[in-house]
Structures are given as C-alpha cells and as structure tokens.
Write a structure and sequence with these properties.
There is one protein chain. This protein has a two-stranded antiparallel sheet with strand order 1-4. It is mainly alpha-helical. It is built from seven helices and four strands. The longest helix is centred in the middle third of the chain and has 16 residues, at 76-91. Belongs to the protein kinase superfamily. CMGC Ser/Thr protein kinase family. CDC2/CDKX subfamily. InterPro entries: CDK (IPR050108), Kinase-like_dom_sf (IPR011009), Prot_kinase_dom (IPR000719), Ser/Thr_kinase_AS (IPR008271). It is an enzyme of class 2 (transferase). Pfam families: Pkinase (PF00069).
Length: 201
C-alpha cells in the first residue's frame, strides 16, 4: 500500500489522474516492487477542475461521485479505487462487485450506508441521484475484514469516504502511522487467487 500511495502522490503532484486503478493494472515483481500500469484512461488535470466524462474506472472500483454522474472530479476518484484495492487485498475478492452502475451503487450503500445530505453535502445535486434510493445503514467493516489494528481500519476508511472533498489525499495518507513501519518484502506468489473478471465498461 505504501508503494501504491507513493505512486499516486507522485502522479497527483504532477497533475495526472490515473482513472483506472484496479488489481489488473498493478504489476508486482518477485522482490515485491509494485508499478502502476495501463494509463489509457489517465488525464492531466488543473485547478479548478474541468469537465470530464464520468464513464471511467472499471465499475467495481469506481468512486460513488462517478456512479452518480459527476462530470467534475479530481484526485479523490483514484483514492477511492485504491481503497477498494486495499479491501480486496484483505478479503481476496472485490468488496463492491456490482454488475451495473446502479448495482454498484447499491453494493456500496449496503456496506457504507445510503448517503444523505448530512453525510455528503451536495449529493442531491448529482444527475443520477434520487430520493428513492433504498435506505441501508452503515455496517461495521470488521464484519467484512479481519483488521490487524485500529490504524489499519482507519487507513482504509479514510479512502472509502463518500464526500470526495473529505477523502485523504495521497500525501496525507503517507503521513499516517499505518505506513510508517512499512518495509518492502517479497510476496508469496502462490498466494494470489485466480484473476477475477470485472465489468470493463
């Protein structure tokens, strides 16, 4: 995770959005070095942000603002995707495996709770938002993931925040205690499960 966050911090400091972070686009060598790959959907950005297409990022790793039709977005979409990747590292399966955009939203809502204006100011202004969304409550993430520490859980949950303006940036994540003792170790190449097929729309 430290390597991936460092890579994102580098990209974002150079005003580049990856826009398609997922396990299939992460290359790991036998020494444990990780590299981001497939920049086919990446774009440069400037502040203030300009309008982009919302149909980016494989749906399982797509941030909720994109699923709700946002056309102005920034680095938070990559942070959300990486949060999904981290959760998958723990569980060995996608945490939000939706088969369509609306199913993807519902998969997220069932775990993180259906967001409201109180949780995410401005959500009702998104093109795909509706008051008719089913109402689910936030569940304890410990029911899904066996965390080793509270720091580990906090680190993940800082990435899976609904409001993109409240998600930690890559630079902020690098300062968190969870990464301070991180050391490069060679991965057990036999531990990786067979590749899952994601919706690549």
């Amino acid at each position: 995770m430290k390597q991936l966050i460092e890579a994102l911090a580098y990209l974002h400091s150079h005003r580049i959005l990856h826009r398609d972070l997922k396990p299939q686009n992460l290359l790991v060598d036998k020494e444990g070095h990780i590299k981001l790959a497939d920049f086919g959907l990446s774009r440069s950005f400037s502040l203030p942000t300009r309008t982009y297409t919302h149909e980016v990022v494989t749906v399982w790793y797509r941030a909720p603002e994109l699923l709700l039709g946002a056309r102005m977005y920034c680095t938070g979409i990559d942070i959300w995707s990486l949060g999904c990747v981290m959760a998958e590292m723990f569980t060995k399966r996608a945490i939000f495996p939706g088969d369509s955009e609306i199913d993807q939203l519902y998969k997220i809502f069932k775990i993180l709770g259906t967001p409201s204006e109180g949780v995410w100011e401005g959500i009702s202004h998104f093109p795909e938002y509706t008051k008719a969304f089913p109402k689910w409550n936030l569940i304890d993430m410990n029911e899904i993931i066996n965390f080793h520490s509270e720091e580990e859980e906090a680190f993940l949950m800082h990435m899976l925040v609904y409001n993109p303006s409240k998600r930690k940036t890559a630079k902020e994540l690098l300062k968190m205690n969870y990464l301070k003792g991180a050391k490069l170790t060679a991965p057990d190449m036999n531990a990786f499960p067979p590749e899952q097929e994601a919706d690549t729309e």
